[in-house]
Design a protein that fits this description.
The complex is a heterodimer of chains A (412) and B (95). With 412 residues, chain A is mostly helical. Chain A is 76% helix and 3% strand. The chains are: A mainly alpha (412), B mainly alpha (95).
Chain lengths: 412, 95
């Protein structure tokens, strides 16, 4: 258990472990001891999908409730039209009653006597009675409609967070499909290109997507930026670049972190992209901007400046890391480099092994990377730092010194 | 007299005409009332269904929370057990 600095036994001390508990969900020794039921729950909580099936069911139900509601609204409209016609006829009956009273008057009857005529009394009773009855029936529906509005809104409040995510998911994945086709066309043969183009034009017509909406890298000004900052544009796994972006914000613009910081699990879920999928930095910049725009009106100038600065820092960091230690940066399989790292710690800083040592199985599971996959040493350094930072506040200076020393030893 | 008789006849005919008009209206009116009642019943059932869904959601969410707590407790116990094992191992090593 390399992640516990010292053993904790009392309930008070156990509280301190609480923050690090998330690692225990995946820690081989503890996780495997859990009951099947608890394992299932812990995994679902860990993957952030714990209550989604329940929410999805409710979303489906709200849709069916709204359909039924629309059916009743339609019938109500039709009935109200018929009600209006009846009201017209009731008015006509009132006019006829007045005419009848005039006829009695012409016969010389007094007003008092006319009031007691059975037929006029009957008409009066009929008109008033029917009007009241219709009004009461209509009014009781109004009460149910009001109740219905309150109930639907109560239900929506409960599932709105899930609905928002579902909508964002659809929007992001639709945009992804478009981008994907653009890329595929670039790589295809001429025939494929034409076919892709036809399909795409048809989709645009069908979905009413304006051509201008499909933003190219040039339009976003990324092409220009790419040329300025990187000699060769680097690629990062999605998980890695999100981490870098969040760290950049925390360090350089902590006040903007709340607005522009990104939750990797939500991002992956909504975009449908895997966290270990590699992206060119310009692709990431574009995706991230689109994602942020889903939820808020992003300050275009501000975010572009952040991106420019972030890219610069990335390029500087990469150069520094490479140039200082290695002439030609070596590559190792993940399993091998973890082994080397752990051995280095055991031999040189055994007291720090508990804090900075890495369990290869947990690391592979957490990062989604295969143990036989090759990594440049600078990539490994970065990954490892991010991984350690997930579970504890790593002493930045200390770990940087370890890394420098470790790299030197490797280069020899 | 005959003039009054004519007027009375005219009134009677007019009253008959109004009565038949009311009878005609009754059919349409009953249909509208029936339709209003059907709509009212429809909304009532829909509202009951929504109530049921809200209760189910709360209940399921509650059950999930309970399951989550049980899993957390199990995890806490295992962590404590694991830590105690480590302490015992260390003590053993020291001895």
């Amino acid at each position: 258990m390399p992640n516990y600095e010292k053993p904790k036994t009392s309930p008070e001390e156990l509280k301190e472990v609480e923050e690090k508990k998330v690692i225990s969900y995946d820690s081989k020794s503890i996780f495997e001891k859990m009951s099947d039921k608890a394992k299932k729950i812990a995994s679902a909580v860990y993957e952030g999908v714990y209550q989604m099936p329940v929410a999805n069911r409710i979303v489906g139900k709200i849709e069916s409730f709204n359909k039924e509601k629309a059916r009743w609204e339609q019938l109500l409209q039709e009935t109200e039209l018929r009600h209006q016609n009846i009201e017209q006829r009731l008015k006509e009956l009132e006019d006829k009653k007045t005419h009848l009273e005039e006829l009695y008057k012409k016969m010389g009857w007094s007003e008092r006597k006319i009031k007691h005529v059975e037929s006029t009394k009957e008409i009066e009773k009929y008109v008033t009675g029917k009007r009241k009855q219709l009004h009461l029936e209509r009014e009781s529906i109004e009460k149910e409609i009001l109740k219905n509005q309150k109930k639907i809104s109560k239900l929506e409040t409960k599932v709105n967070p899930y609905l928002d995510k579902k909508q964002a998911f659809v929007r992001v994945t639709e945009r992804q499909k478009i981008d994907y086709k653009v890329k595929k066309r670039e790589r295809g043969t001429k025939e494929e290109e034409t076919r892709e183009e036809e399909i795409r034009e048809e989709e645009i017509r069908e979905e009413g997507i304006e051509e201008e909406e499909v933003e190219t890298e040039e339009k976003l000004g990324m092409e220009e930026e790419k040329e300025k900052v990187f000699e060769k544009e680097p690629e990062f796994a999605l998980k890695e670049v999100i981490n870098k972006w969040n760290n950049y914000l925390k360090e350089e613009h902590s006040d903007a972190f709340k607005t522009y910081g990104i939750d990797e699990l939500i991002f992956a879920k909504e975009s449908g992209l895997k966290l270990d999928k590699n992206f060119k930095i310009s692709e990431w910049n574009r995706l991230m901007k689109e994602y942020l725009n889903l939820y808020q009106q992003v300050d275009e100038e501000k975010i572009n400046n952040f991106i420019k600065d972030f890219n610069k820092k990335l390029s500087l960091g990469m150069e520094e890391e490479k140039e200082k230690v290695f002439e030609k940066e070596p590559e190792f399989a993940l399993k091998e480099v973890i082994n080397k790292w752990n051995n280095y710690l055991k031999e040189e800083h055994s007291d720090a092994f508990k804090t900075y040592g890495i369990d290869e199985l947990i690391f592979a599971k957490e990062s989604g990377l295969k143990l036989d996959k090759n990594f440049k040493i600078s990539e490994w350094n970065r990954l490892m730092k991010e991984y350690l930072n997930l579970y504890q506040q790593v002493d930045e200076e200390k770990i940087n010194n370890f890394i420098k020393d470790f790299n030197k030893k490797l280069s020899k | 007299m005959s003039n009054n008789d004519d007027k009375e006849k005219e009134i009677k005919e007019y009253e008959e005409e109004i009565k038949s008009l009311m009878a005609e209206n009754d059919k349409e009116m009953n249909e509208v009332i029936e339709s209003y009642r059907k709509i009212n019943e429809g909304y009532k059932n829909l509202n009951e269904e929504i109530d049921k869904t809200i209760n189910d959601f709360d209940k399921t969410a509650g059950e999930l929370d309970k399951m989550d707590q049980e899993a957390e407790k199990e995890l806490d116990d295992l962590i404590l057990e694991n830590i105690n094992e480590e302490v015992a191992e260390e003590e053993e090593e020291e001895e």
